[in-house]
Amino acid sequence: MKQLFAVIRSRGPAWQASRSIEEQEDWHAHASFMNALESEGFVVLGGPLEGTPDVLLIVRASTSDEIVGRLSPDPWTVRDLLRVTRVAPWTLRLGSLS
Q: HSE of 75 in the Cβ direction (CA atoms, 13 Å)?
């Protein structure tokens, strides 16, 4: 059964701090990959956590292993620009995702 998870991805050693997100290697391929996951309903919300090296994703999945597996072909995972550092089940208590 699908449930919501909060996923933290953190910058890996290939991240170039002197460059913006859009200037990182394979930006367009990464953006296309993530947009496809959002279009199919796997990624519900996502974006960088300002002032940190982290990105927050809210995803619908059955297990944490499914999440890691689905994110592994991301060009930024392959190039070690982003790594999954935390996955936790998440219960939405306020607001809605409708």
A: 12
pTM of the model: 0.94
Strands 82-89 and 43-48 come out as unpaired
Q: Are 9 and 67 a contacting pair, CB within 8 Å?
A: no
Alpha-carbon gap, residue 43 to 27, rounded angstroms: 18
User: Among residues 68, 78, 85, which one has the least CA distance to residue 26?
Assistant: 78
Q: What is the pLDDT of residues 15-45, one digit of tens each?
A: 999 999 999 999 999 999 999 999 999 999 9
User: Rounded to whole angstroms, how far apart are CA atoms 79 and 8?
Assistant: 17
pLDDT band at 66 (very low <50, low <70, confident <90, very high): very high
DSSP 50: T
Q: Which two tokens stand for residue 30?
A: 């990464």
